[in-house]
Each structure stands twice: as C-alpha cells, then as structure tokens.
UniProtKB/TrEMBL annotation:
This is Uncharacterized protein.
C-alpha cells in the first residue's frame, strides 16, 4: 500500500534539465486514461477529523514586520499579532534577499527557453507525488538568518497563546524577493521552518496571497473536463465582472518598498526575473521625511515607465498602504491608469496590514482539509472541508461545490 505523501511546495519538483522534461511529458502521456495524476494515489490512512477542523495559521514575513492570522473552520478570521522587525531582523531580510538573488542552485541557474508559465503548469501536473530525480537539496541555515527564525517562533507563539493549537502546521507568506523559481527559495525556507520547529504546509509570495485575500484572485488553471479536453477557467480571472490580466502590486512598510508587475500568461501570474524591484528606505533617504516621499514617488514612476503597462488593478499591502502622503502619490502617479480607482484598491488599514497573513491562513485551511493523495471512500470528511467538481453547461465550464 502506498504511504501517505506530504504535499510538497508548488514548484519543488523542479525541472532540472531537458531529460527530466521529456520524462515528465512521457509519463503524462501514459496517464491520459486517468482523470488526474493525484487521483491515482489512495491515501494509506484517513486524515483525522481533528486536523481537518483545526485552525489554519498563516505567518507573513514582510520586509519590515511579521504578522500572523488564524482562519477557523467556520470561515472567520482572527488577526492575532503584528511584530515590528528589529534591526537584526531587517539585516537578516536584506541578507536573505542577497542569498536568493545571487546564489544559484548547486546545478547552476535555470536556463531554459520554456516560458515560466509553461514550467509552472508542467510542475502543477506532477507536484502530487512524482519524485524529484535530483533529490532535495536544502541550504544549511546561515547564522545571519537566525532573526527570521526568531520572528517565526514569536508569531507562532502569539497564535498559540490566542488559540491553543494541537499541531505545528503553518502556511508561510514570503517576501517577493528576486528569484526565478520557487525552488530557489525553498532551499532557504525549509531550514528556517525546521529551526523554528514548524511544519510548512506550503509557502507563497506575499503579493499572491494578498491578491487572494483582497480580491479573491489567483493563478487560474484550465478546467480539465475529460482526458483530452481543457478549457480556460474564465470565471477565475474575473473581479466585479472585469477580466483581470494585469496587476500592479505595491507593498509599503516603514522599512521598505516592494514593487511587482503581475501579468497573466495563459491564466497564470508567472514570476519573471525583473518583474520585482526592492527598495530599502534606510539605504535611499534615511530619516528625512520629505526626501522619503520624493524618493517613493520617483521609485514608482521609474518602475511604471520601464514597463509601460496599462494595469487592470492595483494591489496595496503593508502598514503604510493607507498613509495620506502615499495615497496622494498613488493618485498622481496612476492618474492615467483609468481602470485603477480607490473604491477597488483602498481598504481599512488593518486589511492591508494583514492581507498576506490572512491569505496564508485561508490556504492553510485548504491544506489541512486536503492532501497529496485521494481519500478512501470510507474516510470521514469534515463538513467544513469543501469538495469541488467541474462541469460544463450552456454558459461554459464551471467549478461547483458539491
């Protein structure tokens, strides 16, 4: 009997070379008579109801602060704590940025003519249990990153103080650091989680989790109707009856500014090198407030000028997202972007501050309900765990809750 498989990170099954790509494609072809790769593996054990109904804990590691939110089985949220980053934490985050930006994997930097969205889609087909032929290679924990471990411990402690937790599972929101593939970051995240004594259900970038919470938008995979038929999930790409193909993401806290251009490619928001720019306030302007706002406006204008994209949506996150001076800059810089309006992007300060942590907690609940294998028919399923099915009618293909 097959063992229960732990759900790996979305892109941890990294495509190392073209030989692995060919192997993956051949395996996919051999499975065309099956409905889904994951559905071919039956769990050896039933997932306990206590785990299916446990609170989902979302930890967010922003450049300047940490935050933790909890999502309960009944769908309610609790914003537990915000912990301002110490000087040691800020230095550690800068060090982490250096690691993931400049250090390739042991096999060298990824070099492929395949588009990132194609790679993401290919990895999604095989993330449910096929082994990584290259093995799992994690970095040893660098001492300079210990303050990040301490932040994670503090956040989990705050969550456990708020609601007694029976497991150490967390969903992690990581900064939008400049890396080409999720695997590049997993090599550093796993040692951090282990040092903090936590089990990472999964981890995603803060921009993606904030987008999920504030707009209920995400990567949109095609709907698999049968063995040979795929159709776009058009409903997934809509916000208030508008089809969203481009998002301008801004994270602003007291210590840093992060800008990301999110452009859909075949339904996905691929993470391309150059899509993100990172700015540290202390390296730009120091303590001069007037110079700070000038620096901020200049950074935004430069980023937009280099890309020349008419964005469909603005995504704001961070503790300073609703600052009056910043909002005035936003309106000035984006005045020609007609689709971007305050009624869409402006929420309460707490909503922007905890956006990524809430998104992480939301997905933590999903991962506590499901696993990388198919539950046996006799296994109990919590009423709080949703089941979905795909169907097609006269209006097109849709995902419906069972």
């Amino acid at each position: 009997m097959l063992p229960l498989l732990k759900m790996p990170p979305l892109c941890s099954r990294v495509v190392r070379n073209w030989a692995w790509v060919v192997f993956a494609l051949m395996t996919l072809i051999s499975l065309t008579s099956r409905s889904l790769v994951c559905a071919t593996v039956v769990c050896a054990e039933c997932r306990p109801l206590s785990l299916q109904e446990a609170p989902g804990v979302g930890l967010s590691l922003a450049p300047g602060y940490g935050s933790v939110s909890i999502r309960f089985a009944n769908g309610t949220f609790s914003d537990v704590a915000l912990v301002k980053g110490t000087e040691a934490y800020l230095r550690a985050m800068k060090r982490w940025q250096y690691f993931v930006s400049d250090h390739p994997t042991a096999g060298g930097k990824h070099d492929s003519k395949m588009s990132n969205s194609s790679l993401e889609r290919l990895r999604s087909w095989f993330q449910w249990g096929l082994p990584n032929p290259a093995g799992t290679l994690y970095e040893s924990l660098d001492d300079s990153l210990i303050p990040i471990v301490e932040m994670m411990r503090k956040l989990y402690h705050e969550a456990n103080q708020s609601v007694p937790l029976t497991n150490n599972n967390v969903f992690l929101a990581v900064p939008d650091l400049q890396y080409a593939m999720t695997y590049e970051t997993s090599r550093h995240i796993e040692p951090l989680l282990q040092a903090a004594g936590l089990n990472g259900l999964f981890y995603l970038r803060q921009s993606q989790l904030s987008l999920l919470h504030l707009y209920n938008l995400d990567n949109c995979y095609d709907i698999w109707l049968d063995e040979v038929t795929w159709v776009p999930d058009e409903e997934c790409e809509e916000y208030h009856d508008r089809n969203i193909q481009s998002v301008f993401s801004i994270h602003l806290d007291e210590s840093s500014l992060t800008l990301r251009s999110m452009i859909r490619d075949d339904g996905l928001f691929p993470y391309e090198p150059g899509d993100v720019q990172y700015f540290w306030a202390d390296e730009g302007v120091g303590q001069d407030k007037l110079a700070y706002w000038d620096w901020l406006e200049h950074s935004l204008r430069g980023f937009l000028h280099d890309r020349d994209v008419a964005y469909d949506l603005l995504l704001l996150s961070g503790t300073q997202a609703t600052a009056l001076d910043f909002q005035q800059i936003i309106q000035s810089v984006l005045k020609d972007h007609k689709k971007i309006v305050p009624r869409d992007y402006l929420r309460r300060p707490i909503d922007h501050t905890y956006a990524a942590a809430r998104g992480a907690a939301q997905l933590a609940r999903v991962y506590l309900c499901s696993s990388s294998c198919m539950s046996a028919p006799w296994c109990p399923t919590s009423k709080h765990c949703k089941k979905w099915a795909r169907h097609r009618d006269d209006e097109g293909a849709k995902k419906i809750e069972l």
